[in-house]
Amino acid sequence: MQPPSDSYEALAARCERGADELDRLADNAAEVLSQRAGQADPQQWAADKRAAAATAREYAAGLRAEAGEHPNARPTPQRLAQAQQVATAANVDGILIDGSHLEGADPGKHQAVTDSGVFTHVAEPGQVPFWKLGTPADQNTAQQHTEHQHPEPAPAAGPDPSPPARADRAEDSDEF
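Below the sequence we write its predicted structure tokens.
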């Protein structure tokens, strides 16, 4: 029997599936980027994907720890909203478009992203603002590991076991 889709275990599993895909993308960065528009640096892009994957895995571990012996239990509404945003970001290239400035935007989703503590906001001139899964410290750690050809980035330390957001391709993300 599968756990309810809003249970700790189901949300953690979604985060991990996204992390696996982010790692696959990072492992094949040059090939993936050759099929996309833009001029992203493959090493940096791969490091960003690995940082997002590490964040998603860390968040999943935090959900499981919080659930303890009750993996099919449901988190509080606030934690559920945060976990859903993290899981979504992990499964859409590690980013969420920041739609908070749009008319009719759901302020609850924006709040969930900011409260999770695992996203970095990116607002560069001429670009749609987005939330990137991972914090700057996570990305620096992943970059160091990529440069040294280490297979696994070190997990980022943080007060909240929730993951951050990634943003390389706005068209691959969920808008909130």
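The chain has six helices and four strands.
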